[in-house]
Amino acid sequence: MGFLEEIERRRTFGIISHPDAGKTTLTEKLLLFGGAIQEAGAVKSNKIKKGAASDFMEIERQRGISVATSVLAFEYKGKKINILDTPGHKDFAEDTFRTLTAVDSVIVVIDVAKGVEEQTEKLVKVCRMRNIPMMVFINKLDREGKDAFGLLDEIEQKLGLSVVPLSWPIGIGSELRGIYNIWEKNVNLFSGHKKQAVEKTVEIKNIEDSKLDDLIGESFAEELREELDLVNGVYPDYNYDEYLKGKLQPVFFGSALNNFGVRELLDAFIEIAPTPQPKNSEERLVDSKESKFTGFVFKIHANMDPKHRDRLAFIKIVSGIFKRNTPYLHVRNDKKMKFSSPNAFFADKKEIVDESFPGDIVGLHDTGNFKIGDTLTEGEKLHFKGIPAFSPEHFRYINNADPMKSKQLSKGIDQLMDEGVAQLFTLDLNGRKVIGTVGALQYEVIQYRLEHEYTAKCTYEPIQVHKACWVEAEDEFSAEFKEFKRVKHRYMAKDKLGQLVFLADSPFTIQMTQQKFPTVKLHFTSEWND
Length: 530
Ligand code: G4P
Known about the structure:
By secondary structure, this protein is α+β, with helices and mostly antiparallel strands.
């Protein structure tokens, strides 16, 4: 197969949802269709169970699963599908944000009874900022839930999406009769609770056809006709270009647990979901069809075995062919590196591969050379954009609790920050280190891992910080900027890349600072020109 055909057949995407909406179940059913696994239950949930905050074995177990499910690849109808796993737990939201920089599209799973939930809102917002093409799967139709029109309204309002239903439910919960597939013009009958992919699909080209009444009964058929009439009137027509631009989102209904409506979703997905997309770098737009290899690190995973310090860096291939044992430029280090055992990921295993194509993810063994966001090329000095750090929600001073182990502590902190476990800010005033995290759970993870992997001990101390604000000065030499730094010198810090950050202690401080120093801009992410 030629290079262009290889690109053409790739679909790299992520599934996002609020925990418990059915992401793991849907992933599993997609893998069953691809023949990548043989039975339900094969995909382990990487959920952190309730009460796990103090259960470190649970965290370690979760880390083990999360490396195994980081990328799940399978073939379906000639397409190579790469699912990038995104943790649902809110304390690991930043991991998910970073993974979203490596996907070409997204499927959003929504629980029909619960509707739009908090974590879905946050994640969809990030996808919208980046115009990522999205499809919506409304799950758990076998349960009593919200009315379809009401739910679509809620999705439009809360998520700011512009939806186009491509399938429509016939009844719901105990009354569920099936779904009408607007995309393929057929009825898929629901025949009770089956976990295997057995389906009864009947073609109904014309919705007025009396065959429909025979299939689902007169009253359901009438209701369906009325509802589809309304669907036609209310929602815009499906438009491929608008979907690709992230301006319009096709919606499918089903029940992942019963493997119902999943095939419809997958068939439409492989047809319309984008092939590997071009990616912006600071220097230029890089197209996937360019012959020279480029890629970037979006995730780093530490070895589970504390005796082996090596890590796995996950690279998304943006353009060209990544080849084993070939020297590539690590742009930030300005150093050539080659990789003798790049891993490719499949649903049930990882394997050393000779070649990988745009859209694919390779896992490279790393002894501490990579940071998240690093670019690899054949020689060009490119820096891929779009892996910003978001302001953490929690902040604490980190102190060394064992003076004999200060080297180990700083190495451990450095490496955990490279992995993206949390963010480090160093105060200009006294060099003290502040750790910022998305969730409180990370502090325990860091303490535990420092002790077990680096034999270092730490303690934390509270610090009153509301938000980390990355500072942009209109004129770095202006008197105003100098004055800003003088007045706020106790709150000025550097992030891990040496960028200037103002650690603001309250929303009020931010507001006052902006009023007082209008030429100094405060940003809540480390990249603001993306
Ligand atoms: P997540 O990855 O998004 O967190 O959700 P997951 O797939 O683990 O699903 C959460 C729960 O919802 C699971 O039940 C799962 O079986 C159930 N579920 C998923 N899809 C459907 C569906 O279409 N219909 C119904 N009725 N339930 C569904 P659980 O009891 O929490 O876990 P388990 O014991 O079944 O594994």
